[in-house]
Amino acid sequence: MRVAIAGAGAVGRSIAGELLENGHEVLLIDKAPTAISVERVPQAEWLLADACEITSLDEAALQRCNVVIAATGDDKVNLVVSLLAKTEYGVPRVVARVNNPKNEWLFNESWGVDVAVSTPRLMSALVEEAVSVGDLVRLLRFSHGDANLVELTLPEESALAGTQVGDVEWPEDTSLVTIIRGTRVLTPSREDSLEAGDELLFVAAQAREEQLEDLLSVRREDV
User: Fold this and answer.
1) pLDDT tens per residue, range 162-189
2) CB neighbour list of residue 128: distance below 8 Å, 6 or more residues apart
């Protein structure tokens, strides 16, 4: 997979390093000469250019990329890069960094963004996830279809503890994608049983989140 990353700061370089370790091709783009640190990520391609300029993106051959990541520290730049990548080059997947949570509402399909990653929101979600049992925590928002990646740790008193996945009447527009049980990561099948303390990851429509939380948190004595 070929990935272009706009923004070669600490965030962009860290993403590049992870992708390279997983065997992907990576191109880092930045207009600041001081950001071009080839020795820090020598396996990547580097381009000194303004990622908001069509000529620069032509030089980067963005049409060959499977994914574009707008990872600069400027939300305006990230929006422009996302829009150009999607509308001018038809990049299948565009991921954008949100620096200011107040701008998060802009990072949607209208601006070409498939996945928006808000660092402050993600950090707060991880804190919530670490301390919350029985409460739904939104980890990531997907622009298309108004869906979110959400997590809930199944409480001891949940009526669903001991129930097989296939026997649960899940809300519409929700999908259980992973069960994290201790150090194990499970791909759920219909025969798997839910256990108290399981971390459950769902992709769910935002309108179904409250219904999903109610279902998972209902106490045994209330049933």
Assistant:
1) 999 999 999 999 999 999 888 888 889 9
2) 135, 137
